[in-house]
Amino acid sequence: MDRRSSRRVLQAQDLPRGSAAPMIAPVRPHNGRPSPCRHGGRCDPRRAGRGRQGGAQMLLAVDVGNTQTVLGLFDATELVAHWRIHSDASTTADELRLKVSGMLGLAGRTWDDVAGIALASVVPRLTFAWEEVAEQAGGLAMMVVGPGLRTGMPIRYDNPHEVGADRIVNGVAAYASRGGPVVVIDFGTATTLDVVDADGAYLGGVIAPGVETSAEALFTKAARLSKVDLEAPVKVIGTNTRM
Asked: Over 50: is that where the pLDDT of 13 sits?
């Protein structure tokens, strides 16, 4: 195991338990069955601790997609702020840290209020950049969703290592909040449909081109079609190629 991977595992074990975001906290689904828990076994999201500088202990949840990155700042299970930025694989850790510093400032917070980062990423270069951000911000606890992280959700995929982190957290969150069986549909660069059974096992799903991805391909391949914005049409039956 390389140095970077070793550091990641240690930090995942040390991630504050009291400040976990709902999607990785051991809440119960509506039917009363225990939901999958995160790495480290039993944990109670209501046990809010104190931060590194005596402030509220908060978790920064980061979802890195192919096109956009969504960030949420959690105080225990309460979402206190959220932001959306462009996912650029060439972005450095320094740039990410400065961006987040600015966003935290807008929320009246600083890095001293953040005790750890939970990361789900489908862009490997940005995964490494965010790990470096955690290091630069004072050695924050770091949890990276991926192979080896025990979510408590059995993966019934032919090769579990091939399932994207985004699909796993979608399944865990859906089962925790709604119970099962449940189908999760995520509209992004790709449109994914994932299925979780009644016992909380991830069964697999479908990956299809996203809405914008499909539209771009259509506009590129069809010479006489002009590009239009993706918005609700005025009427269902179009009477021109601009609708």
From this structure: no
